[in-house]
Amino acid sequence: xxxxxxxxxxxxxxxxxxxxxxxxxxxxxxxxxxxxxxxxxxxxxxxxxxxxxxxxxxxxxxxxxxxxxxxxxxxxxxxxxxxxxxxxxxxxxxxxxxxxxxxxxxxxxxxxxxxxxxxxxxxxxxxxxxxxxxxxxxxxxxxxxxxxxxxxxxxxxxxxxxxxxxxxxxxxxxxxxxxxxxxxxxxxxxxxxxxxxxxxxxxxxxxxxxxxxxxxxxxxxxxxxxxxxxxxxxxxxxxxxxxxxxxxxxxxxxxxxxx
Length: 259
Ligand SMILES: Nc1ncnc2c1ncn2[C@@H]1O[C@H](COP(=O)(O)OP(=O)(O)OP(=O)(O)O)[C@@H](O)[C@H]1O
Known about the structure:
alpha/beta; Rossmann fold; binds adenosine-5'-triphosphate; ABC_transporter-like_ATP-bd
């Protein structure tokens, strides 16, 4: 096995805010898994994904350890941005490069020594599947909208960074097609970890980590139990998305289910 291939990552418990050990023995995440992290404000959701992003080694505020293939993460995973296997995309992810989207991606492709002339085109095409506002290669990065930026970053993480672990921190209101993103990331066999308050994203995830007081409180695996609720929530969510688009377009809403 290539020493940099990730078979799984394992989270070992740390301590809650009162210094008490967390309530789980270990949690293993494999490529293709989808996991949501939920919990009230300040319960430690971002701290948990931060631990995953930097492969914590009892050196963060939570005292957790995150192993790769059962061992401490290799140094280059933490230090070398080109080898970092984790992409973190948040609502606040912005790109301030004063260049076009096409040139920005080409620069990233060159820095990763990828020889594939079509990869930039494919990355922009994929980003355009995640957003309603089409991104053109000639547009400057600084003039992309929030939704376009997040879509481009997710597409970049899949196609160019080829990161096996993707952390998405509250992107549900970020103007992207979340179901499409989840479906695509599953097909690309990525481990997907969301911090979310969104019912669709939470119920589409196979596991739900419930945070409380800085610690993992419970790990839920509802499976079939939530199947009917999920179908209903997706239907409601599509209605809300349609209404949002009509409101954006300046329409008067006379019916919740317009023709
Ligand atoms: N186990 C812990 N021990 C001590 N401090 C912690 C622990 N977990 C989180 N914290 C601290 O508590 C604060 C809130 O945590 P965090 O930002 O992760 O919460 P959150 O659930 O992401 O909140 P929000 O939903 O508002 O973004 C942070 O300052 C964080 O460093």
